[in-house]
Design brief:
alpha/beta
Length: 227
């Protein structure tokens, strides 16, 4: 158990969400991690045309990249994806300006982006000084232009949270992303497209995060595979 400062995680929301919306939707998780980890959400740089659920002018829905002009589909092998570089720069800026951070928490498209950040970090990119990531309902981008992120196993500790009944990002896509990492830890839950925070999930989150307590040095080994 961490006895020093809480870990700090940069939180990356899903498509058609925003930093403030994601904060609202992760209230149960923030409560479950209280004293152990702090979530710091940021908003994607791109607004989604046409708005979305609960859309308003002060907090429009946002996305990290588009698979076609103004739209996004996770399963689409986009020929000309747009916006990713701006989002990588936004994450790098947040890490530099609002840090230090220990890791990342990503949900849906934000988890896909976090996985790309992990790949760059594993290659030694100094813009992304993170030690681990929690990827909820993640997926690997199908865009050929993004294929380079997955060509080599990504050697950064990750916890992949998979909803068995997720109708937005199929569980198979999240498990496929997990296989892009070295020794991923996979947490399955019976729910759908949300960030689970019930007691069984809380225990796995805390066990994973305890590997990275400040002052402990390198991450402690944790058996990879399904939980």
């Amino acid at each position: 158990m961490c006895e020093r400062r809480p870990l700090r995680l940069l939180a990356l929301h899903g498509y058609r969400q925003s930093g403030p919306r994601f904060r609202q939707r992760t209230g149960a998780l923030r409560k479950a991690l209280r004293g152990r980890a702090e979530l710091v959400p940021i908003s994607a740089p791109h607004t989604v045309p046409g708005g979305g659920e609960g859309s308003d002018g002060e907090d429009p829905p946002r996305g990290w990249w588009f698979s076609a002009p103004g739209t996004f589909e996770a399963a689409e092998a986009a020929a000309e994806p747009a916006g990713l570089e701006e989002s990588l720069s936004a994450v790098a800026a947040a890490l530099a300006e609002r840090g230090p951070f220990d890791g990342l928490l990503g949900f849906s498209q934000g988890a896909a982006l976090a996985a790309m950040v992990c790949a760059l970090r594993a290659r030694g990119d100094p813009r992304f000084p993170v030690r681990f990531a929690i990827l909820v309902a993640g997926f690997a981008s199908r865009a050929p232009a993004h294929g380079h992120f997955y060509r080599e196993p990504i050697a950064l500790p990750t916890l992949h949270v998979v909803g068995d009944t997720d109708a937005v990002i199929a569980a198979s896509l999240s498990r496929e992303l997990a296989q892009c990492f070295v020794e991923p830890v996979v947490l399955s839950h019976p729910g759908g497209h949300f960030v689970p925070a019930a007691a069984p999930q809380r225990k796995v989150y805390l066990d994973f995060l305890d590997r990275f307590c400040p002052g402990q040095g390198e991450a402690e080994p944790l058996e990879a595979g399904a939980v």
